[in-house]
Known about the structure:
Layout: H1 8-31, H2 36-51, H3 62-80, E1 85-86, E2 92-93, H4 97-104, H5 109-126
Antiparallel strand pairs: 1-2
Helix pairs in contact: 1-2, 1-3, 2-3, 3-4
Amino acid sequence: MEKQDQDWPTVERNLTRARQKWGRIGKILAKKGANPKTMASFYKAIVQSVLLYGAESWAITKSVEKKLRSFHRRCARYITRRHIRQNEDESWTCPASDSVLKEAGLWTVQEYIRRRRETVMNYANKTTIY
């Protein structure tokens, strides 16, 4: 962990809460046979809002970005049912993250953070400060 990583406790708390939310919602949606686009909509509306709460002001270090990206991609693989699998010859098959995200109808986690920051900046630029 990097020395200036003061947002790490917040990121960890958000990750824990997002995992809990996704664990509950993902199981229900999978059990009901929801299609990937529906699952992605629930993920974006509920799980991602918990995961990225406050991300507009975070200092995104490499370790934070890696954690967020990993969780986001894992959720996308679950949504599309394209998991990392071990083959009979003991090798592993990992679906390409770009194609999994596209199939789920998701952008990268970095793009979601960028858009959140842009929204805050647009609001700040349009607000008159007395």
